[in-house]
Write a structure and sequence with these properties.
The structure holds two protein chains of two kinds.
Chain A lengths: L1 E2 H5 L10 H8 L15 E2 L1 H8 L11 H19 L6 E3 H12 L7 H19 L11 E3 H7 L18 H10 L1
Chain B lengths: L1 H37 L10 H26 L1 H6 L2 H20 L8 H18 L3 H6 L1 H29 L9 H12 L3 H8 L6 H31 L6 H33 L9 H18 L4 H19 L2 H30 L9 H29 L6 H9 L5 H8 L9 H29 L12 H20 L5 H20 L2 H4 L4 H23 L10 H39 L4 H9 L4 H15 L21 H23 L13 H17 L29 H16 L5 H13 L48 H4 L14 H5 L5 H11 L5 H14 L11 H7 L1
The chains are: A mainly alpha, B mainly alpha.
Protein name (chain B): Sodium/hydrogen exchanger
Family (chain B): Belongs to the monovalent cation:proton antiporter 1 (CPA1) transporter (TC 2.A.36) family.
Subcellular location (chain B): Apical cell membrane; Early endosome membrane; Recycling endosome membrane
Chain lengths: 179, 895
């Protein structure tokens, strides 16, 4: 069983600005391909592998549909990471927090700057997804559809992968199938 | 076509001219010289053709090549199907034919010396300088495998197969030994960067594929040079004397050549980066360093017989980041353009001359078997090599390269001028069949560049090769990418591995801590953030489109008429008046909350947000946006007074013009300033200063401009902002609009600090109104509302349909949202209140306000502390009638 403290104690993680989000992601029930919401106190090997499975690379045999599916999974993972309260919407506050932490170690920028950026990004999402928004409208936050939409050009296929030593990707696949 | 024809005719004419001149004057000159020595008279006009011949020919040729390109590019229907490089070669054929027709001998051809010393360096410098570093280094492993093993394989297999075919009798009687075949193989094995770039630039394949082919073509130069030299030496030595020691030497020399070349480039790159730290004062020639140092890196490597191409590539790769950050934005832009000019020009010349060189009877020796077999083997072995190596790489590659990409990679193995240059360099004394090799190389070059080049695009389409994704430009994508990197590193950490991402992270750390510290100017180190860059870009874009939109509607005034805001404005005004005491009371408690919301909803534009965000670290870019805006805003009468300066760009700006720009924009700026920042600055009524004091100041203003400026700010506050006396106005003021804008932004900066005082300001307004201290004398401002082209406070109505209180409040894109917030209806007469002392400083001179404003104009000294000191005071005695007395230290200045 792994607890949060265990992950937090990994020395190499200490410098990572979004360490908290990443650790949260491991304990997030939404990342277990189930429909549950909430978070674990501690996770077992299976859950650990489930989270890790988001990072498996495709191979030459992966079909287009599978690739699409994988992409969606990865996006969902990212989305969950942003959506901390689990209501299916990334609100401005949530997004700001992420951006703030992301930028927190590039010292020159203060919190305001991070906020500005988050706001600008948010507005971008809003304007892409709801082009005809009247001034009275209120954009609550990014839904998963919007998230998918705005990142549709982002090349995930070559990015969000980790090479796992000694772990055959097929076993990872089995891990998913069993659950 | 008619146009094309005429230009072509023109070229033909110029060609004839060269030919004729080349022949005739030579004979005439003899007479002239003979006569010249005898006759003491002065010949008024004499033809000094020989004196100018070499440079003249060079210049003419460059012109002709450029015109060829112009003709080719005139019609895009052609270049869509046939790559430019192929067309250039064809036009080379035509030109060569003309020369041949005129001279009966090919007087011009591409010599290896010219090629390697003048044409190649600029092209490679360009590739290195604009190399996508991250992509390049991510795929470095694959590139190296292809560049080293692939090239060796190509050379060896081609040489051996040809040799085998010769023994088999396929090529008739040729006097070529195995070593010479290998030499030929080595010179023709290398994929040519120039050709590859020319073709792949027009077929937008995905970036991984592109970098694989292109990187290979760049890096295999080291291999080619070594192979060529080694085999050349072997051929000289002769077969029997080659022993193991020589072969080992050859292998060692490979490492020396390749790594030595890279090292030379690296060292020069770092030198350049260091140098660029201190070139601030010679901005005008700053860009020249790139070319000179790059060329020196190239020549140094050449001198040490290292790989010159690798040297200049790594020069570009390693200095690009630092110099782009260190140098002024103008210089960077100049470099980027100039490097393209040189590279593109050189490329054009290379292809044209490749074509011209072909039209020469003396070089052609035809051997069907040799030529066809070479072509066949080149293609086959290229495919085999690529497929095998990629298969091997895919075993370990995270994201495998799929088959269609592999086909394109193989098919993209274009040979070019490098091979031709090497072939011409062969020693005819040692290799009897040199001519055959040269002509075969030419055939191969034509075949690959023209035929494969033409078919590349259809093939890419047919195979549905993944195309290049659109460049990431949205902010959210950048943010997301940043998140990716961290997530990947974190996951690797958690899983306890040290993979690529781990290494990359380590490298970034190292770079940040050491390289940047040494190589970057301290001032630019902070702005090394990509997210910020995108942010900045977006803002610029918005500002631009805003201006365009404004122009479309006739004026920028339309924002003011946005009806959406009006009722809100009124409402807010009412609320304000009604509940003012409460608000004031609440303020002290709610202070932090209120101020934070205020901060975000405060204004405005792009630039200002920046300021707030970056606190002036982006002075240059801010200036740039100013420049853009200014360009769009000002379309007035221009009275250019052309002057010349070798060291300044903007010398031709007419003072009148600048002043007009200033006056036209002043009003609106002031307005936005007031509306946006009013809250921050305690209002001053102008009447508070005694006339006596003012007169004094007017008198002493001239000297004060020098004295009263705080040392720290002295260089930042432009002289032009002072208005010592009316007669000076218009002559010496506003000499530099840029310095004005810089100054203006500083003011913004300072104001941004104190936004949370907005409410106090309103209170002041109220008091103001009550005490009837409003002034109406400023009506004679000569600005019309229509001219209120606000450079700063540009709202962006397309996007900015948000109001405070809606989900997001983004200052960057909805600047004017809070305009109504801060100008209650009773303040519509904006001239009644001067926004702040700083703003006052910039009021243009008019008869009515000069007198009153003059005292304030010199109060520029250390305004930060000045305003800050004032702020708390206002907070406490906000019941008092407004105008705070000028702080004491100001008086000290005055007297």
């Amino acid at each position: 069983m792994i607890r949060k403290e265990n992950l937090e104690n990994i020395p190499a993680l200490a410098e990572n600005p979004i360490k908290n989000q990443i650790i949260e992601a491991f304990f997030d029930k939404r990342n277990q391909h189930g429909n549950e919401v909430g978070s674990f106190q501690e996770i077992g090997f299976e859950q650990f592998v489930m989270v890790m499975s988001h990072f498996r690379p495709p191979n030459l045999k992966t079909t287009k549909e599978e690739k699409q599916e994988m992409r969606k999974e990865k996006l969902r993972f990212l989305f969950n990471m942003h959506d901390t309260d689990g209501d299916g919407i990334i609100t401005l506050q949530e997004y700001r927090k992420v951006v703030e932490e992301l930028l927190s170690n590039s010292g020159a920028m203060d919190q305001d700057a991070a906020h500005e950026i988050a706001d600008a990004a948010m507005l971008e999402v809003a304007s892409t997804n709801v082009p005809q928004m009247s001034p009275e409208d209120h954009y609550e936050g990014i839904t998963f559809q919007h998230f998918e939409q705005i990142l549709k050009d982002l090349e995930m296929e070559t990015r969000m992968f980790i090479r796992f030593l000694d772990v055959d990707t097929t076993t990872m696949h089995c891990g998913k199938a069993t659950s | 076509m008619g146009r094309g024809g005429s230009v072509r005719f023109w070229i033909f004419g110029s060609m004839l001219l060269i030919g004729v001149w080349g022949q005739e004057p030579k004979s005439e000159r003899h007479d002239e010289h003979g006569g010249g020595s005898n006759v003491s008279g002065i010949s008024i006009v004499s033809l000094e053709w020989e004196y100018v011949e070499p440079p003249y020919l060079v210049a003419l040729w460059i012109l002709v090549c450029f015109l060829c390109k112009l003709v080719i590019e005139a019609n895009h229907h052609v270049t869509e199907f046939i790559p430019e490089s192929a067309l250039l070669i064809c036009s080379g054929f035509i030109l060569g034919g003309m020369i041949w027709g005129a001279d009966k001998v090919q007087t011009f051809r591409l010599t290896p010396y010219d090629f390697f010393h003048y044409f190649l360096p600029p092209i490679i410098l360009d590739t290195g300088y604009s190399m996508p570093n991250k992509l390049f280094f991510t795929n470095l492993g694959g590139i190296l495998i292809h560049a080293i093993i692939g090239t060796c394989w190509n050379a060896a297999s081609l040489g051996l197969s040809l040799w085998g075919c010769q023994i088999g009798g396929a090529m008739g009687d040729l006097n070529v030994g195995l070593l010479q075949y290998l030499l030929f193989g080595s010179l023709i094995a290398a994929v040519d960067p120039v050709a590859v770039l020319a073709v792949f630039e027009q077929v937008h394949v995905n970036e991984v594929l592109f970098i694989m082919v292109f990187g290979e073509s760049l890096l295999n130069d080291g291999v080619t040079v070594v192979l060529f030299n080694v085999f050349n030496a072997f051929v000289t030595l002769g077969g029997p004397r080659i022993n193991a020691a020589e072969i080992i030497k050859g292998i060692i020399s490979f490492f020396v050549v390749a790594f030595g070349g890279s090292l030379v480039g690296f060292v020069f790159g770092l030198l350049f980066a260091l140098l660029s730290r201190c070139t601030k004062n010679i901005q005008i020639i700053e860009p020249g360093f790139l070319f000179i140092l790059g060329y020196l890196a190239y020549l140094t490597a050449e001198m040490l017989s290292l790989s010159a191409i690798l040297s200049i590539v790594f020069f570009g790769v390693c200095c690009q980041k630092y110099i782009n950050a260190n140098m002024d934005e103008n210089s960077v832009r100049t470099m980027k353009c100039a490097v393209k000019v040189f590279a593109n020009g050189a490329e054009t010349m290379i292809f044209v001359f490749l074509g011209i060189s072909a039209i020469d009877k003396s070089i052609w020796v035809w051997n069907t078997g040799f030529v066809l077999l070479t072509l066949l083997f080149i293609l086959i072995y290229r495919f085999m090599g690529v497929f095998f190596l990629t298969w091997f790489m895919n075993l370990t590659r995270l994201v495998p390269i799929d088959y269609t990409d592999q086909v394109i990679m193989s098919y993209g193995g274009l040979r070019g001028a490098v091979a031709y240059g090497l072939a011409v360099m062969l020693d005819e004394a040692k290799i009897e069949e040199k001519k055959l090799m040269v002509s075969t190389t030419l055939i191969v070059v034509y075949f690959t560049v023209i035929l494969q080049g033409v078919t590349m695009k259809p093939l890419v389409k047919w195979l549905k090769v993944k195309r290049a994704a659109s460049a990431e430009k949205t902010l959210i994508e950048k943010v997301q990418n940043r998140a990716f990197e961290h997530i990947l590193v974190a996951i690797e950490d958690i899983s306890g591995q040290k993979g690529n991402n781990y290494l990359r992270n380590k490298w970034f750390k190292f770079e940040e801590n050491w390289m940047s510290r040494i190589l970057l100017r301290p001032s630019v180190r902070e702005r090394q953030d990509k997210v910020f860059n995108v942010f900045h870009q977006l803002n610029l874009k918005d500002a631009m489109s805003y201006v365009v939109e404004g122009e479309r509607r006739g004026s920028l005034e339309f924002i003011r008429n946005e009806s959406a805001f009006v009722d809100f404005k009124k409402k807010f005004g009412e609320d304000m008046t009604m509940s003012m005491p409460d608000i004031m009371a609440d303020m002290s408690d709610d202070r932090s909350a209120a101020s934070s919301t205020r901060k975000e909803s405060v204004p405005s534009v792009s630039l200002e947000v920046h300021e707030q965000a970056m606190r002036g670290t982006r002075a240059a870019e801010g200036l740039d946006s100013h420049h853009l805006l200014q360009q769009h805003l000002y379309k007035g009468r221009k009275q250019h007074r052309h002057r010349y300066s070798r060291s300044h760009f903007d010398i031709n700006k007419d003072e009148n013009e600048i002043q007009e720009i200033f006056q036209r924009t002043m009003k609106s700026r002031l307005e936005s300033f007031k509306s946006g920042k009013m809250g921050v600055a305690p209002p001053k009524t102008i009447t508070k200063h005694t006339r006596k004091e003012q007169q004094q100041k007017v008198r002493t203003a001239q000297t004060l401009t020098q004295q009263s400026v705080h040392p720290l700010e002295k260089d930042k506050i432009p002289r032009c902002l002072f208005f010592p006396n009316p007669t000076l106005h218009g002559k010496t003021l506003f000499q530099d609009f840029r310095c004005f804008t810089r100054f203006f932004r500083q003011v913004y900066n300072i104001q941004a600090v104190k936004k949370n005082l907005t409410f106090h300001f309103f209170w002041f307004q109220l008091q103001n109104k009550k005490s009837k201290s409003r002034l109406s004398g400023d009506e004679d401002f000569e600005f019309s509302e229509g001219d209120s082209a606000s450079g700063y406070d540009t709202s962006f109505p397309v996007r900015g349909g948000y109001r405070p209180g809606a989900g997001i409040e983004n200052p960057a894109f909805m600047p004017d949202v809070d305009l109504p917030l801060q100008i209650p209806p009773w303040l519509e007469d904006v001239d009644s209140v001067a926004p702040s002392q700083r703003a006052q400083v910039r009021l243009p001179w008019t008869p009515s306000n000069l007198r009153r404003l003059s005292p304030l104009r010199i109060s520029t000294r250390s305004s930060d502390s000045f305003n800050l000191a004032e702020a708390p005071g206002d907070h406490q005695d906000d019941q008092l009638p407004p105008p705070p007395t000028p702080p004491p230290h100001r008086d000290g200045d005055v007297v």
